[in-house]
From TrEMBL, chains A, B:
Highest rank taxon of the organism: Bacteria
Family (UniProt): Belongs to the D-lyxose ketol-isomerase family.
Protein name (database record): D-lyxose ketol-isomerase
Organism field: Neobacillus ginsengisoli
Gene3D superfamilies reported in the protein's UniProt record: Jelly Rolls
């Protein structure tokens, strides 16, 4: 990382005050009017809460590809519920984690999440590093299922 | 890399028949209607010939960010000519390498090339690995300065 990038590392705790349970660490390499690329770093079992990327200013919402680089990621998207999911929903937050179609990503594996689709994800026991390739990122437009979340 | 990706490694020799001089090796991770992500692997001193990405079907042409991961990349774009460039233009090809504004990228450094802008690049003595984040890739639309090139 270059110095400007080091200053640009983002800690997202979503206004919930328990970063190690629900939170995310991000490095954004580029985010312009056409595309975006980030690396996401997750602590062991750390969870990014359920959200979706709605249309913004007449443009379709963010579409994104998660490519696992290190560790394991349990990703949940809309679709048929997986009978016994590997991820653990944070205690007391069951109502805010509604999609349960499980995708497991190990290093070198990736999955593309369509626009306007609910998703959440959790790192495995070791944590995880995930590259995110996407259309333009507009975090302030994200819609979270948990009404307590402030982005 | 997963097996489908291994089958998807691309060797671009541009119809010139001297891959180690002018050529490129690519792995495409994703290329959809919104964005694209690839890794480019270059042999020592291997050169990607000068080209630009024009508008396609009323959409602005490809915009791309090169992020050096390993080795050194000498990148040339439109703008004031650098007085003594580090890159070596392939012999006899001088007329097809017209832009000489030099940007040197070492690991962790990156540069974004605007749409519709001529550029070419060459790896340093050790070769290079470069991540390319971009808008949708439509290689068949690329315009090369060298009329002998077939993409």
């Amino acid at each position: 990382m270059t110095d400007p990038e080091k200053e640009n590392v983002e800690i997202a705790e979503f206004g919930l005050g328990h970063l190690h349970v629900e939170g995310l660490q991000l490095v954004t390499y580029v985010n312009n009017d056409r595309y975006c690329a980030k690396d996401l770093v997750l602590f062991p079992k750390q969870t990014c809460p359920e959200h979706l990327h709605p249309p913004v200013n007449g443009e379709p919402g963010k579409k994104e590809t998660f490519r696992c680089r290190w560790g394991t990621v349990y990703l949940y998207v809309e679709g048929e519920h997986t009978s016994e999911i590997q991820g653990k929903i944070p205690k007391g937050k069951e109502e805010y984690y509604t999609v349960k179609h499980e995708i497991i990503l190990n290093p070198g594996e990736q999955y593309t999440i369509p626009t306007n689709t609910k998703h959440w994800f959790q790192a495995g026991e070791k944590g995880a590093i995930v590259s995110e390739f996407s259309s333009t990122s507009r975090d302030e437009a994200d819609v979270f299922t948990d009404p307590n979340i402030i982005r």
